[in-house]
Fold this protein.
Amino acid sequence: MDISGGITASLAGRYAAALFDLAVEQNQVTAIENDLDNLRQAIAASGDMSALLTDPEISRKAAGEAVDAVGRHLGTSELTRKFLGTLAENRRLAALPDIIRAFGAIAAAQRGEVTAEVTSAHALTDTQIAALTAKLTAREGRDVKVRTTVDPAILGGLVVQIGSQQIDGSIRTRLNSLAQAMKG
């Protein structure tokens, strides 16, 4: 399989590529992708989880035990838990969010799809997500997987990130543009 050199050139990309290869060997790509998505959500929701990943004072053993416990709590596969243990042992837990993104990009490329990161001021309904997915798929000419996040600071509208392209239709950006135009 051809994996973009840009992804695998980074530390996170190398770890993600290694995990992807193991997942392919064990026919667990979808399960690992789900595990990593659950971990991504846990990191975003918990300050303690974020601290666990970045605190240099936590020993390798303690970090390994903690991520194993989190993995068991989330119901992750054995492969994911072993991978987390390896990250803890190598003091690479801080790279986990980047590894999760890189794994998603590798898996999407293998399936011939692209991931769109969509930020909205309020949670989107399933109908809105389906309509947005259809429009983005038509625009991109390939399958698009939509991942949503909520950020009330954008006030309204959407910010869509597909690869290196960003479509910013947020009210915050429009207000900032209007303010700049009024300044002259």
In short: The CA atoms of residues 64 and 85 lie 5 Å apart.
